[in-house]
Amino acid sequence: MSQSSATLTLPVCSLWTPVLGLAVLATMLPAQAVELRTEVVAKGLEHPWAIAFIDTNTMLVTERPGRLQLIQAGKPMSAVSGLPKIQAGGQGGLLDIIVDSKFASNRTVYFCYSEPANDKTGGNGSSTALASARLSEDDRSLSNVKVLFSQLPKSRSALHFGCRIVENPDGTLFLGLGERYHRAQDAQTLDNHHGKVVRINKDGSVPKDNPYVGKAGALPEIWSIGHRNIQGATRGPNGQLWIHEHGPQGGDEINHPEPGKNYGWPVITYGEQYGGGKVGEGITSKSGMEQPVHHWTPSIAASGMTFLNSDRYGKAWQGNLFVGSLVFRNLERLEIKDGKVVRQQKLLPDLKARVRDVREGPDGYLYIATDESAGQILKLLPAK
Prior knowledge:
Blueprint: E1 20-25, E2 35-45, E3 48-55, E4 58-63, E5 67-72, E6 78-79, E7 94-99, H1 103-106, E8 108-116, E9 126-135, E10 142-150, E11 162-167, E12 173-177, E13 197-200, E14 222-224, E15 230-235, E16 241-245, E17 252-255, E18 294-296, E19 302-307, E20 321-325, E21 330-337, E22 340-347, E23 355-360, E24 366-370, E25 375-382
Antiparallel strand pairs: 1-2, 2-25, 3-4, 4-5, 5-6, 7-8, 8-9, 9-10, 11-12, 12-13, 13-14, 15-16, 16-17, 17-18, 19-20, 20-21, 21-22, 23-24, 24-25
């Protein structure tokens, strides 16, 4: 789904103030109903895209126009310096961010963004890049910025950058990529990074056990193919990678990509062309291509996802998958059993804001980022 960009001057605002909003009662699944309230953690953000927790009281938030904000309990929001050049526009800009699993000792963060062409990368336009950096002890600046991966080839498209990062239990990094919209067929070939999940080591090198290492004509970073526009990624309870990706008009999918497998786009899909009409042959299955774990029709424009590990909302929600919706402006809760979605529930029906990201904080509560010109970070709490 496309989105427009807006420009605002960010106000100085007081943050992490517990402002009550949106008391809602979850419906559809009465046995699992949990009444929620929201607490405003931060406001005045311009199209916030991702949340990364440093500790219970400190987080980093990316803004799509190309800023990284530090949010600390009881302090004004402040920009973190040291970012590389970012080509913001359309759906591109500063996108996902995570902190290293050993952040306490190495201060390392990983972020992905739309990288403009340069003498090193060549080509025209932009593509998704993944970089590492060291966050200063005062959390105010980045140093030792290193580009670990640059998607090839560059494209003049301002759409479908993908850009979600997951650290694998083995210490490698997964990056979910879009097919740049105008190059959908690239998702089915191995000579480019469009419409792929890639896997790299933390120094940017290629893991020797990647499925296409040593295969003629294949880029060795590729893990899986046939993806459209990956906007959510997380690790499941068993450590397995889960992603979701935008379909066209309908057919948003959840997948858990396995090495060397093909997830079908644009050959198979449960969606259709914008305005109606078949995508390709209009088929939903084909030999050698994987079926999604779950799909939404109509499209919810899924963005952000996390499994809830805590029991902050009761045992019934522990282990559930939570996915943001840009179109319906709510949060989806999905119960998973044996790797399948068995029940689904819409939360925050009165939110009236696009949910771009959802994360579980160190305190065990869920946090969401609303993708608006004056976006917010909201903490979800059980109603008292």
